[in-house]
Amino acid sequence: xxxxxxxSKMVTFIITRQDKPESQAYSETFKxxxxxxxxxxxxxxxxxxxPVTAEGKKTTPVVWESNCLEEVCGACSMVINGKPxxxxxxxxxxxxxxxxxxxxxxFPVVRDLVIDRERMFSALKKVxxxxxxxxxxxxxxxxxxxxxxxxxxxxxxxxxxxxxxxESCPNVNERNSxxxxxxxxxxxxxxxxxxxEMNKEERLEALMEDGGIEGCGNSQNCVRSCPKGIPLTxxxxxxxxDTTKQLFKKWLTV
Length: 254
What we know:
It comes from Paenibacillus montaniterrae. By secondary structure, the protein is of the alpha+beta class.
């Protein structure tokens, strides 16, 4: 009897769709057969195999992004029941029905649940979130990072550029150029690296430009929503301190 009940159970999805970047958004409802331990991605795969609405209308398959399916790549970010999160780790048994899926609106929508994260990647380019080692491969081993520093730096390195922190931040929107908490935290990470520290001032200067760290309103939504538990507000506070020091340093050297 229990097996029959599970087999006949259906899960209802209301999905916000958009055919093109310039198209109007609309909603479609789907019903997917329930399976124990299924997540949102597995449900989207069912809809892709059989793109028929709850009303029996044949439609186009819903488009979304995914890759690792284990909350590492950050590709499957979307708004699930009003909360930005990863679809791969969103278990059906833990979600209230009907389950509503929407694209993250901080970023331009490409199609359906697929978004363009260019704003986030441009922010990382602006702060030079990398270790410049081109041409130094023949210099031998680099300096070692102290274990006490490595432990907290590792937590910052878990960022998977999913964009959830930007989606939840009220200060990241189309009306301003705020780079968001992820890029600020990456400045802290790379400035802590013994080799990355060589470009420390350059990264801090980038944070002091328009759209930089002054755009943070301290809502703390980012740290509450980060799927990897990264201490984003701690990084923002640390970078506030470092940019202030950098500003005084510039004044004293003028």
